[in-house]
Amino acid sequence: MRKPLSTPMLRYVMLLAVTLSSACMATPDRVVRVGVYENEPKIMPAADGRPSGLLGDLLQAIAEREGWQLEPVQCEWQRCLSLLSQGDIDLMPDVASSPARQELYDFHQVPALHSWSQLFSRPGSNIHSPLDLDRKRVAILADGVQHEYLQQLMDGFDISPRIMPVSTLQETLQELQQGYVDLAVSNHLYGNYHAAEYGIIPTSIVFQPSRLYYAAPLGKGYELQSRIDYWLQRWRDDANSPYYNLMKRWGGETPAALVPPALVWGLSVSALLLLLALAFVWLLQRQVQARTRALEANEAHLNDILSNIQAFIYHKGRDYRYEYVNAALCRFLGRTEEQLTGASDADFFDPDTLQDIRQADRQVIEQGKRVVVEEVITPVDSTEPRVLMTVKMPLCDAKGRVRGLCGVSTDITEQRKHQQQLHQLSHFDPLTGLPNRRQLQERLKVALMAAEPNGQEGAILFIDLDNFRDLNDDQGHEVGDQLLQAVAARLNQLPLEHFMQARFGGDEFILLLEGLSPFRDRALMQVEQHVNTTLLALSEPFELSDGNTHTGTASIGVAMFSDAPGDIRGLIKKAELAMYAAKSAGRSGFSFFDPSMQAQVRLRAELEAGLRRGLEQDEFRLWYQPQFNLEGKLIGMEALVRWQHPEQGMVSPADFIPVAETSGLILPLGRWILRTACEQLVAWQQHPVLANVRIAVNISARQMQDEGFVTEVCSILDQTGADACALELELTESMLVQSIEQTIDKMQVLRQRGVHFALDDFGTGYSSMSYLKRLPLDKLKIDQSFVRDLMTDPNDAAIIRTIVALGQSLDLSVVAEGVETNEQRQALVTSGCQGFQGYLYSRPGSAQELEHSIHGQR
């Protein structure tokens, strides 16, 4: 026999399912227009459009006492601010005060709410400190006060996350959920309120505690805001006021059950009457019996209702065991009420599900919180997970102590499946599974917004399969579809970073490249590499059904973000026009939209071909620039490569070194420089002045990363007979952040051989004491950019003093580059620098020129 449900418990449950509302008609003295937008739980529109949430309900309470009629104006955040500035709304809740906003709006004195900003991430992202934000994509509300504060945080920690402004807080969490960004900035109330819904978690990074107000148009807010201040100040001094009741309600706290004063009075009167009316006991007993029968009938009626409700309703005690379950939960778990009563979740769910359920239960029972959570559960006798939207709230005894919890769960599995199917259909191509045109445009919008303020470049590659129509006509659309699917799979396997591939339509695909260099020349080189990789991948044979293969080509048009800033359609159109230009040029190739870009790419190709010819025909020369100490004594030479082009004359290293690095020619060129410098060391061994001079050779990141670099250096030293102690290798800071451990290992091996090391251009890269202390360095070189403005920029002077002090603390010699005037030299001496290199002492020259110059000085 089913255990009857107690009447108080039934009433509590029914309050979860039935809400009665009444409207009281009144004639307000004033209509107050209120901006309402989605920012749960602080402010959002109720079902009838009225302001709701913590701040909305608080304003409703004030309006009732002031006789105001609130007229809601629903708008997004930025639109609300515009309406407020124009005076089209009278009040806007949830506005943080800042000096800039105080010039635009009126604010009252007493803050309505205290809040702070917090970063949210997807589970497993390992974001623990501000330093972890470097190069991460961060979604943030446009025109919010968090934007400026986060920028200051970035500058303070010298990090460069990619800021992506969005229009609404909902959009920030959606971008994070869908993986378009790595982090989202939200106020802690909204983020925590929706964390379960979006499958995200709060990080430990919080910032910018703020006070929130009801803002009014500038110069028009005194009348309303003075009354708001009055009620806020009055209610904050009263623990039982509407202010604290709303705080507990929306903040997730359940206030302790209070005994109404009327009930106390009634009980006292009843007791007195009972003492005075003992003669009427028999009448009261009859009344009690009648009421008992009515309650029993009501209880049976309520049990019938609960048995037919589709939601799962249950009670648990403090021991997390079921005390009551309705028929729907029994059917779901395949158990009877007797089997469930007294049982725990461990009897019915797998360990992962049990852990999630128990975590939510603890928040209710141990902390007294009301919890709304989306649960994914898998019963032990089932393999299909189910998605439940669950509300859990504490059950309290007469003294306000939590004695258990009441839960109401609704199975939304099919709803979630439909949502996923709709999202898949609306954002992905059904044939290839790639993002479709709609998702591409959404992603491109975000990419353009993120690239513009940071100065970063990007590009889209418009890909069209050559002669695809002929394949369709000859072999049918089924074979054509197979080729499109194979092309999509090939694009998915491209070894590219920060890119997105999409099917634009027909046999057209688009690759979106982000995070390119802000420098146009570098960005063009990067794009060319990506294009060549893509063309090569698409030229490989495709395996189709029935063992058939297809070998084809593609034409690619390229448009850079800077070709059409902020214009999505214009950018795609320009890439398409460039694609047609590539087809016109003979197919199986690519073309940039901007002719000047095409010319730069052509120039780079010519320069690369010239480099190859120059290495073969011995067109390179090695010049040397001396280094001197404080007394003017020669202490070293830096080897500088020069290209004597047969037609263009002397070509600057700034022009050909970047091409050599990206093309891989830096390896043979670097090998030639190192061998030539070692041969010069041997030639100077008998020179009376230069015999003990150390030659410094610049090493590129590509050389240092090459697996055979150490062997190559040792081999050159052995073959030339050069003294390893007279060879100094100069590294740059930027190369050290790549494979730092392997770099240190290679340096230590060469150091044991006797080779010295210097850190070139110090102060311009990723300076860090952690690696400086670990590197086997002998010298720091102050970059000439700091020396150039030394006499006019106090910051450069301070940086130089810091570098010199750092070198002294690490027992490293310090040499300043680019010293051109006596004033610069004197300022460097004053800062403690004792090594100098620059035109003040000597220009770079050939070995013969330097020998002649030194001979003349003797």
UniProtKB/TrEMBL annotation:
Residues 604-858 form the EAL domain. It is an enzyme of class 3 (hydrolase). SUPFAM superfamilies: EAL domain-like (SSF141868), Nucleotide cyclase (SSF55073), Periplasmic binding protein-like II (SSF53850), PYP-like sensor domain (PAS domain) (SSF55785). Residues 1-26 form the signal peptide. CDD domains: EAL, GGDEF, PAS. GO terms for molecular function: cyclic-guanylate-specific phosphodiesterase activity. Pfam families: EAL, GGDEF, PAS_4, SBP_bac_3. Residues 371-424 form the PAC domain. Residues 456-595 form the GGDEF domain. This is cyclic-guanylate-specific phosphodiesterase. Its EC number is 3.1.4.52. Keywords: c-di-GMP, Membrane, Signal, Transmembrane, Transmembrane helix. Gene3D superfamilies: 3.30.70.270, EAL domain, PAS domain, Periplasmic binding protein-like II. It comes from Marinobacterium iners DSM 11526. The chain crosses the membrane at residues 262-284. Residues 298-368 form the PAS domain. It comes from the Bacteria.
